[in-house]
């Protein structure tokens, strides 16, 4: 097949080079954006008198026909045509002849692909934002059911202080809320139109770039043609945002994997979101959570690959930049695969409240509250800390919890301790007295849930 760019060449491209050079196998997913951009460009060319108006109208009409034919499965893309841009242009020329040859006036594939990838990523980002809103809703709905479900909070994976499962869940709400904010902010920087940058130095044709940007819904146009064709910051920024989403999914998944083990037994995954063993009949494995954890490394790899690809490229466009698409496409696909299954997994799991409460009572999670009790009785905190430290050591040696100590035993450590100590260090008091903003007290968490619902309703 004759190349649309082949006038300067005296021999055909080697077949292996055609296969190596072609990107149609992965960039064909941008066909809608490519055609939409070409329609806006052709309309502008006709409006500006750069090409005859009748040719412009003929191009626009046939591009719409091509779009419908692609969506109806009537178009077969060719490797020899290299990419989605040349494939669509070839189809157009085959159908309407010389008028189709005028479409590429005033543009290069360099600014064309920069346009397509921006438009494609904005569309995909909007979808992921919707998925994140659903994730937030799922978390909040689950948290609302567990404002009184007491569980141990951890630092260093050692029991630290009691919290509620709702409070723990709302920590992830905050993480995914920031992910949503980052995506929206990233989309702002992607929403700048590069078409009109040409190959690298713009064009001598009187293009109306603002008109094209308005037609395509862009907020602005790029202000430097070199940057317009060579910038892939927005791709890398999105890959970073996606990596953070996966990191949060992975952290939560790791906890679910731990919690569903016999040693914790805080939750049990629904049968529909678990798998068994081919040899051990008793097994119920949290494979969904493990796969999400594993796929996180895949998205991280794409981020590092993109950074490495771009780090040594001089201005302006270089063919290396064709390697931006497969990583970001796969990163998007991976996040879109993980978010829905994650939401369904946590929405259907069984929360073992009694085991969580039992777990919170072990490991001296109320030790800080004993120290706070002593401080409120007048002892300086550092002295109180030392007293409770000795008290914990005493209890460990006797295989007791602090709640199990008798009043006589408490008095051995401090004579200011009274009978009200038992109420002060109960799990319920430990949780619900922490009424500081951001704390685990039931009333504070319920307020956070109300605010979360308001935020979700505004999205």
For the secondary structure, the number of strands is 6
Which strands sit side by side, in order, in the main sheet?
Answer: 1-2
User: How much helical structure, as a percent, in the residues?
Assistant: 55-70%
Q: Strand fraction band? A: under 5%
* Biggest pleated sheet: 2 strands, antiparallel
Order of helices and strands: HHHHHHHEEHEHEHHEHHEHHHHHHH
CATH architecture of the largest domain: Up-down Bundle
Could you give the distance between the termini?
50 Å
How many domain regions? 3
The global form is elongated
CATH superfamily of the largest domain: Fumarase/aspartase (Central domain)
Secondary-structure content class: mainly alpha
Provide a descriptive summary of the structure in words:
The protein is mainly α. The chain has helices spanning 15-21, 24-27, 31-47, 53-71, 84-96, 98-101, 109-144, 165-190, 209-216, 225-230, 233-259, 287-310, 325-348, 353-361, 367-376, 381-397, 407-413, 421-424, 427-432, 442-457, and strands spanning 150-155, 158-164, 192-193, 220-221, 267-268, 350-351. The chain has a two-stranded antiparallel ribbon with strand order 1-2. Strands 3-4 form a two-stranded parallel sheet. The chain folds into three domains: 14-105, Fumarase C, Chain B, domain 1; 124-205 and 218-357, Fumarase C, Chain A, domain 2 (Up-down Bundle); 359-457, Ribonucleotide Reductase Protein R1, domain 1 (Orthogonal Bundle).
């Amino acid at each position: 097949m004759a190349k649309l760019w082949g006038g300067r060449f005296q021999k055909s491209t080697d077949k292996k080079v055609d296969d190596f050079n072609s990107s149609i196998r992965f960039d064909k997913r941008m066909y809608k954006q490519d055609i939409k951009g070409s329609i806006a460009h052709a309309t502008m060319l006709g409006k500006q008198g750069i090409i005859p108006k009748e040719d412009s109208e003929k191009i626009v009409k046939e591009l719409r026909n091509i779009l419908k034919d692609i969506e109806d499965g009537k178009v077969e893309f060719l490797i020899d045509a290299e990419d989605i841009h040349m494939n669509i242009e070839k189809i157009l020329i085959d159908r309407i002849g010389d008028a189709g040859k005028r479409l590429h006036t005033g543009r290069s594939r360099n600014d064309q692909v920069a346009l397509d990838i921006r438009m494609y990523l904005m569309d995909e980002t909007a979808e992921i934002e919707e998925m994140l809103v659903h994730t937030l809703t799922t978390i909040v709905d689950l948290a609302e059911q567990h404002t009184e479900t007491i569980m141990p909070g951890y630092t260093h994976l050692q029991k630290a202080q009691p919290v509620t499962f709702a409070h723990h869940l709302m920590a992830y709400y905050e993480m995914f809320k920031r992910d949503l904010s980052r995506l929206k902010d990233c989309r702002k920087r992607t929403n700048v139109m590069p078409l009109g940058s040409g190959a690298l130095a713009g064009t001598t044709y009187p293009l109306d770039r603002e008109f094209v940007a308005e037609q395509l819904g862009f907020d602005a146009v790029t202000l430097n043609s070199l940057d317009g064709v060579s910038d892939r910051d927005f791709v890398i920024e999105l890959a970073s945002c996606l990596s953070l989403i996966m990191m949060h999914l992975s952290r939560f998944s790791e906890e679910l994997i731990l919690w569903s083990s016999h040693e914790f037994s805080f939750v049990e995954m629904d049968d529909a979101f678990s798998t068994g063993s081919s040899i051990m009949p008793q097994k119920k494995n949290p494979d969904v959570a493990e796969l999400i954890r594993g796929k996180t490394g895949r998205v991280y790899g794409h981020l590092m690959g993109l950074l490495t690809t771009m780090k040594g490229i001089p201005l302006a466009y270089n063919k290396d930049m064709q390697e931006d698409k497969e990583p970001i496409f796969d990163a998007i696909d991976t996040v879109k695969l993980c978010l829905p299954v994650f939401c369904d997994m946590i929405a259907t799991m069984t929360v073992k409240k009694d085991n969580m409460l039992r777990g919170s009572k072990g490991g001296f999670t109320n030790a800080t509250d004993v120290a706070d009790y002593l401080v409120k009785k007048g002892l300086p905190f550092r002295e109180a800390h030392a007293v409770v430290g000795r008290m914990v050591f005493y209890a460990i040696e006797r295989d007791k919890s602090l709640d199990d100590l008798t009043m006589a035993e408490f008095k051995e450590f401090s004579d200011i301790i009274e009978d009200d100590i038992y109420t002060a260090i109960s799990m319920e008091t430990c949780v619900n007295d922490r009424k500081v903003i951001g704390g685990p007290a039931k009333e504070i968490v319920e307020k956070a849930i109300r605010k979360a619902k308001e935020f979700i309703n505004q999205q």
